[in-house]
Amino acid sequence: MTVSGPGIPGGSIGPGDGAPDFTLSNQFGEPIRLSALRGRPVVLVFYPFAFSQICTSELAAIRDRPEIFSEAGAEVLAVSIDSKYALRAYAESEGYSFHLLADFWPHGAVARQYGVFDEGSGMALRGTFILDRNGVVRYRVVNPRGQPRNIEDYAAALSRIGGTGPNRIE
């Protein structure tokens, strides 16, 4: 795991900021580098734990609405502090075909870089960052503990990033 780029320790990355680069292993142990995905939007979804009720429902919404992401040409990266072994079992159990990334060691380093690591509980918060084709954050939301995110918000943000209308963001 490596993390590089701008970021305020203990702070948060927001719209207009360049997304800090990182490399994490996915559920198959393959290294996934954020900067290698430049040229397409990326939906970076931090979640607390595999197999937990709200996290599973949020990721199932992504699984069940692939058109939201495919129509925008977006790549989904779901990040938790679980090990790649737990994430592989989770992906197989739930039928997730997108990358589940292990921010396992150093524990929560990428979540910290993005300002969504809860030091008191040792887990990632429910934070989502949608990046444009150049790796710039265009959408950010961090929901309180126990409050799921709304997938329709992702659709709206992706349409502004990838669309052609007056609300398009470059």
Supply the key terms:
5 helices; globular; disordered N terminus; alpha+beta; disordered C terminus; single chain; Glutaredoxin; 170 residues; three-stranded antiparallel sheet; five-stranded mixed sheet
How many DSSP-defined strands?
10
Count the DSSP helices. Answer: 5
CATH homolog superfamily: Glutaredoxin
Radius of gyration: 15 Å
- What general outline do the C-alpha atoms trace? globular
* Derived structural class: alpha+beta
β content, as a range?
A: 25-35%
Largest β sheet strand count, sense and barrel closure: 5 strands, mixed
The end-to-end distance, rounded to whole angstroms, is 30 Å
CATH topology call = Glutaredoxin
Helix content: 25-40%
Order of helices and strands: EEEEHHEHEHEEEEH
Q: Please give the CATH architecture.
A: 3-Layer(aba) Sandwich
The strand order across the widest sheet is 6-5-4-9-10
Multimer state: single chain
Summarize model confidence as the mean pLDDT: 90
| Number of separate domains | 1
Structure, explained:
This protein has five helices and ten strands. The protein has about 170 residues and is of the alpha+beta class. It has one domain: Glutaredoxin. Strands 6-5-4-9-10 form a five-stranded mixed beta sheet. The radius of gyration is 15 Å and the shape is globular. The N terminus and C terminus are likely disordered.
Blueprint (SSEs and pairs):
Blueprint: E1 2-4, E2 21-25, E3 31-33, E4 42-46, H1 53-64, H2 66-70, E5 75-80, H3 84-94, E6 99-102, H4 109-113, E7 117-118, E8 123-124, E9 126-131, E10 137-143, H5 151-162
Parallel strand pairs: 4-5, 5-6
Antiparallel strand pairs: 1-2, 2-3, 4-9, 7-8, 9-10
